[in-house]
Amino acid sequence: MPRVIHFEVHADDPQRAMRFYAEVFGWQFERFGQIDYWSIQTGDAASSGIDGGLMPRRGPRPPEGQPVNAYPCTIEVDDIDLYLKKVATADGKNVVPKMAIPGVGWLAYCHDTEGNVFGLMQPDPSAA
């Protein structure tokens, strides 16, 4: 069956967005040729997960309070409370508070510095 193999972050300010993701998650960025596009390495090739890209936003930023109209990416973390602090320190925002997904783990949704929604998931089978 088809799987997601790549994701893209759209940014009003690509340099600011790259600083955010590097500071919070340690992601690495490399310019792709001569165009305004950067490849994102989210981990080593031996671990599960996907890599992506970052590009300037095409069109206006979605207004605050608009329902999510995208495929938000969820990032697995080992300590969701620590990463919620990292997000805030890097000028991001927690927009849906940490909640238990019974038998799965802890989930929260955040905005990056560009207003994009992403999830944080701490696996924990005892979450309730």
Automatic annotation (TrEMBL):
PROSITE patterns associated with the record: VOC
Residue ranges, annotated region (Disordered): 49-69
InterPro entries: Anthracycline_SecMetBiosynth (IPR052164), Glyas_Bleomycin-R_OHBP_Dase (IPR029068), Glyas_Fos-R_dOase_dom (IPR004360), VOC_core (IPR037523)
Domain VOC positions: 3-123
Superkingdom: Bacteria
Transmembrane regions: none
PANTHER family, per database record: GLYOXALASE-RELATED, VOC DOMAIN-CONTAINING PROTEIN
Record's protein name: Glyoxalase
Source organism per UniProt: Sorangium cellulosum (Polyangium cellulosum)
